[in-house]
Write a structure and sequence with these properties.
Blueprint (H helix, E strand, L loop, with lengths): L1 H33 L5 H12 L5 H11 L13 H11 L6 E5 L5 H9 L3 E6 L2 H13 L5 E5 L1
Parallel strand pairs: 1-2, 2-3
Helix pairs in contact: 2-5, 2-6
């Protein structure tokens, strides 16, 4: 039985990695089709993609969680844009709202909220690399009404 686990675990991890990559490509195509070139969200999303081109967010999270001695070092995950847009519609958010995005990761959903609804957004994330890069993108695009906190 132990021999079987040594063979199947790498295959399972490979299948998960491929699924995540396919979801990422589908998400990217969705953003490209749904948001025009000049949209604030598309510009922020492209800036984040450039920042993470050679830095895998899953690896960044795993390394951070390993240093903290976490029991589950593979707990990082991202909500797909199309799923989050469904949640936004159901919550009936408007520009007068202030959203706190706990565990905002790279901050993509924070940028989406600010760009599409116009509400104020506070992204709160434990991993310093994510908050630093999100803040750099926010600053570079000179976006107001959005803040990132490393907590």
């Amino acid at each position: 039985m132990r021999f079987c686990n040594r063979l199947t675990e790498p295959l399972i991890l490979l299948a998960i990695a491929l699924r995540v990559k396919l979801e990422d490509v589908y998400d990217w195509l969705y953003v490209m089709r749904r948001h025009d070139r000049s949209s604030t969200f598309r510009m922020a999303d492209q800036a984040l993609r450039r920042q993470y081109r050679f830095r895998n967010p899953y690896c960044i999270s795993r390394r951070f969680l390993e240093t903290k001695g976490a029991d589950d070092i593979h707990s990082y995950g991202e909500t797909p844009i199309r799923t989050f847009e469904t949640l936004m519609r159901q919550c009936d958010l408007d520009s007068n709202d202030h959203v706190f995005e706990l565990g905002c990761g790279r901050g993509r959903l924070c940028f989406l909220l600010r760009a599409t609804i116009g509400c104020s957004v506070s992204g709160i994330e434990a991993i310093p690399t994510f908050t630093r890069i999100a803040e750099e993108v926010r600053s570079h695009l000179q976006l107001d009404g959005i803040s990132f906190y490393q907590k």
